[in-house]
Amino acid sequence: MNTTHKPIALITGATSGIGLATAYKLSELGYNLIITGRRKDRIDDITRQLISKGTDVLPLIFDVRDPQAVAKSLGNLPEPWEHIEVLVNNAGLAAGLEPIQEGLLDDWERMIDTNIKGLLYVTRTVSPGMIKRGKGHIFNIGSIAGKEVYPNGNVYCATKHAVDALSQAMRIDMLPYGIKVTQICPGAVETEFSLIRFHNDRNKADAVYKGFTPLKGEDIAECIASALTLQANICINDMVVMPVAQANSRNFFKKEV
Ligand code: NDP
Ligand code: 8X3
């Protein structure tokens, strides 16, 4: 229930990693939160914790790949939850790391449907309210994989290049309404990302972060907060954020482990 007159932020994929850290950061900044994800147990637990910090929370369980579920969950929000000022399009994943000729169709569908179509469904539902109120800030979580391609990154890189293109495009569309669009493009962030990419192979996932200090979800939440708290006349369009030990998607400085 939203009982206080705090601004409202919606974060997709708040059950883990970057989305979870962003929920806590925006709670600290004084936002009431709509948090989403598919794992109800986690959403319930996070909701309890945020409420104990004085944040009002509307927890919503749905799959961003399902346009009907997105419309049902976000299309008719009760007052005052419909007054979303900040949208963080974060829900996303990589599945698989194979050359194109060996890729699994199911992995491809999941990435395309979540990273591109899910982001579109949510934005299509939420942005008209921002336009009506003449106020809003949309964050799209892209990736260094949306700026470069790397071996076997094929479809994941394509989805994040699409996020890059959509961020530029929606910035143009939102221009007359004063709505900011910021794309955040992280390098390696240690979350559940690699575990999902490698289909729950813990050894492969852990190996990704060996020999250097990756970013944490909290680091990306700080970047979102820094763009969000600038003066009204400033918009950070694009932020590429790397661990110090990572120059680009392929060049890491790793210590022997
Ligand atoms: P996590 O796997 O830790 O978190 C992913 C979040 O997305 C979870 O909350 C998950 O919730 C949600 N999600 C995934 N699929 C769906 C779906 N179909 N419907 C609804 N929610 C979904 O990964 P990260 O925090 O690392 O990833 C967040 C974003 O950051 C992604 O877009 C990713 O591509 C991007 N990114 C990550 C980087 C990294 O190195 N970690 C680097 C660059 C970008 P649930 O399972 O409960 O539905
Ligand atoms: C996640 C970072 O380099 O694994 O988007 O694609 S990377």
UniProtKB/TrEMBL annotation:
Q: Which residues cross the membrane?
A: none
**Keywords per UniProt:** Oxidoreductase
Q: Domain of life here?
A: Bacteria
The record, for Pfam families, names: adh_short
Q: What is its EC number?
A: 1.1.1.-
Q: What class of enzyme is it?
A: oxidoreductase
GO terms assigned for molecular function:
oxidoreductase activity, acting on the CH-OH group of donors, NAD or NADP as acceptor
Supply the PANTHER family for this chain: ALCOHOL DEHYDROGENASE
**Family, similarity comment:** Belongs to the short-chain dehydrogenases/reductases (SDR) family.
Q: Under which name does UniProt file this protein? A: NADP-dependent 3-hydroxy acid dehydrogenase YdfG
Organism of derivation: Porphyromonas macacae
Specify the taxonomic lineage. Bacteria, Pseudomonadati, Bacteroidota, Bacteroidia, Bacteroidales
